[in-house]
Fold:
Amino acid sequence: MVTVMDLYKNSELTIGEQQAQGVVGWKSPSNIALIKYWGKHGRQLPLNPSISFTLSQAYTQTIIEYKLKKKSSNKIDIDFYFEGLKKPAFARRIVKYFEELKEVFPFLTQLSFEINSDNSFPHSSGIASSASSMSSLALCLCSIERDIFNKEMTTKEFLRKASYVARLGSGSASRSLYPKIALWGDTNGLEGSSDLFSMPMKNILHDVFIKFHDDILIVSKKAKSISSSDGHAIMSDHRFKDGRILQANKRLHILLKALKKGDLEKFGRIVEEEALTLHSLMMSSNPSYLLMEPNTLQIIIEIQEFRKNTNIPVYFSLDAGPNVHVLYPDSVETEVKDFIKSKLLKYCKDREYIKDYMGSGPKELDF
Ligand code: DP6
Structure:
């Protein structure tokens, strides 16, 4: 059994030349948080636990070719291509990430890497890609370690390590590792929960939540005026910080019960309150900022009215941006898709939306 300390410091071995060449690849999905991670401390540790549905159609595919460096040096050596093009800004972020991972993967300085990454969704769609991109990258690194050192790990240990490594790149990425639903963060009364990595939760799900839909309505494709990292940083001295931590923990327990019981109404209430709380925290921070747009509010109002008039269980969520996630069970798919087409697409940029749903987690590519 691999302990947390083993996960942290690892691979003290030196690479033998014969194994030090290969190619690995992973397709990893994005996720939508139901209880939001907002605010962090220390080394990528969350202020509160969060839980998310793993998506399916919004994913990143990353392929890494690696070989032994010609000359040994302490520098990270990568070539990074995003959708076939060199992207120096992304490459710099990855070099920084690899630098921070040297103590987990000392082999990172012994190899050179060519990294190719592609998103299934348009880069300019305003969809947050750090969860899918960082989780696919973390999985590739764990596969390289497994292949080079013939490391024996169970799937559970492998995914937990990948979640740990993904978290260091982007907090929400730690949750993309598991099918259907994942929880990240120390949670009172939940054995195995940790701030260091996420855990799978699909066993708690009532049938009503299986194949849940999340249609992502693209309200704006503009780059965000503030990055998630800066948003998290502002939480450190937010006047509502302590209250927010208590609230997120309390809501998480209510939501877990609703997910177990199949209580859609309670689920929807908590999920919508969380989305609005996330944006309220941004609006009440110092400096204050606003990421919703008029059409975000129009869509929210339409969803609330439609639900009231029809009793159809359809709910909204928001990320740190203006796009709206429309959440509903499979049993009402036809009605909700018709509603989206007839009433909501007019609020979307170029009438665009992504039809997504709960997915089965990352997939390793064969070479
Ligand atoms: C609003 O995971 O993007 O989507 O850890 O700085 O990379 P970093 O932040 P990130 O934050 C996601 C915030 C959120 C809520 C959530 O996914 O829980």
